[in-house]
User: Fold these one by one.
Assistant:
Number 1:
Amino acid sequence: MDEQTRKKSKKAKQIKTGITIFLFLLPGLILFIGILIAPIAVSLYRSLYDWNGFSAGTFIGFQNYYELFTNGSIKFMVSLKNAMILAFFSVFVQLPFSLFLALLLGRKVKGERFFLSVFFMPVLISTVVIGQLWLKIYNPDYGLLNTMLDALHLESWKHVWVGEVKTALGAILVPTIWQYVGYHMLLMYAGVKGVSADLREAAMLDGATNWQVDRYVVIPIIKPIIRVSVIFAVTGSLKTYDLVRILTEGGPFQTTEVPSTLLENMLFLRNRYGMGSTISVMLIALCFAFALLITAAFREKEV
Amino acid sequence: MTMEERYTLKKSNPALQVLIYIFLGIWALVNLFPLYFMFTFSLKSNDEIFGKNIVGLPHDWLWSNYSAAMYTGNMGLYFLNSVLVTFATIVLCLASALMATYAITRIKWRFSKLTNAFFMLGLTIPLQASIVPVYVVLSKLHWLNRYTTLIVPYAAFSLAMAILICSGFMVEIPYDLDEAARIDGCGLWGTFFRIIIPLMKPAYATVGIYTFLQCWNEFMFANVFISDSVHRTLPVGIKALSGQHTTDWGPIGAALVIATFPTLLVYIFLSKRIQESFIAGAVKG
């Protein structure tokens, strides 16, 4: 009898703890499920519909996905190509440059903190502000760039930078890469600083030069950070939106569209919410796929 | 000479040293120049910007550009909106994250690891993922163009990182403290409020800084969800202003400075902390 009441009270206590745990998790769960998980489920479901957002819509299977890749007027392939170009330059220009800066600053240069802080600063500025600034630099009549070319008597190099098919994507690329160099540098710098002095010393004793220490000791150790940087650079490129909206609005002739601007167009210009959902599903899938792929590629190299 | 000292710049070739400093200096200029350019053209008239004086200091310091940005451009209102949205997001996100982290790291139960992994999915999910359904639901409920339209999604998308940062700090708190509190008669709630909340102060700064930058600069949601002029945040306000003032650059410059200076001011004093919160966010993720 006594034993039973004790069991009962233990069980009651467990239930009480369970409720408490649930209550602690509740605000987070509501936010997370309500804004992230449920909408993704709805997007998945709606990506199979021809839907204007307000009627019931018609089920069309994988038609949206098919159309996305085959209908040229949707411009999805163009947007994907642009995102991939951005990703390419981020990974192969921006990251090596960031790594180089991180390694330099890791060598106790004078004014290390100053340089670090200045190089990181653009990350904190809103992309909209940066876009507006660069619009002033690119302005065909009064912009800094064309005025400078005038002063150098290089008139033939002048362009309507954000308005010409040839230069528009490059005009987006430059500020994007410039802005986030500092971000990747900071992460890598933290890694470089974490490499123990003993390891460096040991390599030095073996007669390695500074650059050899970087190449054979430091870089292999900070590989996990480089992997994170590569993932951020690629998924970040897939998600680009701000600078394109500000600088070119996807033009000229939709040559600089990226998936996110297309997604917005589907909602506001074309009323194709089903297709919009399809694009967001593709974006999530691509982000996850690239994250996994990059992780796998780094693991392969370690073997 | 110890080996530690050899791994510095001092011991390398002097010519190379000079080159390296020149290089670092140039890159510093490339990063500082846009700020200088923005600040100076915010105080100039079009005459100066368009030819007479493109990169120099302004001849006449036109502070009237700032009043134009504030009054005709409504930047004051947008600034307050941004402050309100950002602050509310930080509070909501931090409160939910602290509670969830407490349940995950300090109470023993079967699915705590799994729950944590579930929340961590949020680190990889892009903002774009939920934009269509959230937009449709909000517009059906007539919930667009409110502060909460931005606050709730911002908090949700910052949550995963906040939980990640909070768990880092929370596992550092000795578990003996919980037991001592339990013996003194504190329940789970009591322990949370009296022991954990006060000891988590360092995490507030890190989460706060991270969330601040996410919200203050966010453009896509704000651009899609806010169409009236009363609830615009700074990035959307700047876009609207630059649409009105296509020919008058001074007020646009002033608006850019208004949007940027609070962040930079804080950065000057807290650069190390801010950098650390970015590192904490990325390296563990």
Number 2:
Amino acid sequence: MELIVAVLLTVTTAATPLLLAAMGELVVERSGVLNLGVEGMIVVGAVVAFATAQLSGNPYLGALCGALAGCAFSLLFGFLSLTLVTNQVATGLALTILGLGLSGMIGENFVGQPGVQLEPIAIPLLASLPLVGPLIFNQDIIFYLSILSVVGVSWFLFRTRIGLQLRAIGDSHGSAHALGISVIKTRYLAVMFGGVCAGLAGAQLSLVYTPQWVENMSAGRGWIALALVVFASWRPLRVLAGAYLFGAVTIGQLHAQALGFGIPSQFLSALPYLATILVLVLISRNRRLTLMNTPASLAQSFVPDR
Amino acid sequence: MKKTLLALTAAAVVSLGGTAAQAATKICFVYVGSKTDGGWTQAHDIGRQELQNHFGDKIETPYLENVAEGPDAERAIERFARSGCELIFTTSFGFMEPTLDVAKKFPKVKFEHATGYKTSDNVTSYNSRFYQGRFIQGQIAGQISKTGVAGYIASFPIPEVVRGINSFLLGAQSVNPDFKIKVVWVNSWFDAGKEADAAKALVDQGVDILTQHTDSTAPMQVAAERGIHAFGQASDMIEAGPNTQLTAIIDSWGPYYIKRTQAMMDGTWKTQSTWDGLIDGILTMAPYTNMPDDVKQMAMETEAKITNGELHPFTGPVTKQDGSEWLKDGETADDGTLLGMNFYVMGVDDKLPQ
């Protein structure tokens, strides 16, 4: 029992940054914008969160500043791709490269310094439940926010008027513009939300996952988040399933190795990717539904010329 | 995608090294990780700084960080060769083939590859007998561990890493014949999150000593959090675990870099395979901390014995994992077998990935 809880706790820690970053990117892509800079925003969020927490001694301030840094970085992407109408794919890639380099520079003096950890917050009564108590109700604030983001994004996209407008923009920005919806403004807000989520995901890496700063500590998680969004066919609950499945297989394969089952480790290392893609493709196999969920004007630039 | 990006990033952060006059000789370094990783690459970068300080403005020492092993490495090395580097140090096992390929195209440039086993007219290989340090660590683990099981976080199944695992286990078994190790491969040299996950998985499964052949301090941090002990790798990691680190293998490449650069300047540089150890000072042990005095005493004695050649970590009788005899009583392993080691010794709780 104790082992199960310990294993599942590690799984939630591994899944949370993927879930947050993917949930942010989902909203961005639903509005028709493809921001490939997730990796860059995560790593900038991570270094700013670590630096702030270290200097102020307050990890909450660190998490907040990490989120804001992700947001500021996403605004750079927004300004280039939405206002100056640059190519979104190229701009996003540039954002990632810039983020990796910039974070290394900012973080140079923070390498090897002891970090400040975001402590878990126990929710009264619920935290003492067996199994789910320690797993779900005795976690750090970023975990709670990641779960809230799934609920919030689902509700926002499919139950609110502005969510409908955002999806309309993603499907046909020309028509949405003709209806009088402000395409650029909505997309800016979506991109900023994506930045906040990625920044928080970064803060989780440097304040919870491994409370320290090392260069490139995002280690490709931004790309996994991007892939999750596509394979989950832009559905929030499937992103949740995908992120946790990925986390579970990642941790599970390490345990399988430690138990010495004798399965080749290269295969086990590839397993999280294979399993996640397989499962998400299977649940998204209805072509009509997938097409319906795909934002039709994804990655297309919009110039309001009429 | 990720690898390309890393290479691009690496290219974007090329340091200009010294700002010496144009006549300065260019000695270039290719790193697999970040120079501030707290482990492997940091040790090489400290060596580079010692080299720079030794020769002052007679040389420039540009370096490339975060160069992925594989095709990206070849591009990075070739760029250096083209840009007028006279001596290029490539500091990761996976750079071996790319180094040899580039060396063929640039016969006048000299190359030095770390931890590999192939050489050519203008490619030298250099390595350190890390396994000597790992044997000492194993002995300490054998004394300290209460569960009799250590966790080993490994990177890639190459001879270098396998040799470390075997040496650690033989050291541990020399004081506790029933000692076991659990091996987890993370298939990466440097991924703090993954290394931490592996460390947690191992601790959850009951190991009470962690050792690693990866480059970040994350496993040390997990060990500190869970209140067990661990060994540092490549650099002294005591800051990540003041009450956790027992000792660490410290690589000190500086003297070697200075020696080889001098040889190149004197025109005496020749292809060779260097495999130095404790006695040459290329490998040193961090202070023995967080352990009882008698264990410390034993560790220091073993270190002295290995240094003066009295003790070879791979001394028979040693049985392979499959039960066949490898070394007879009193027989020591030859360097050829050690350099190409692709089998476990008895007692490793893992199947070696081939």
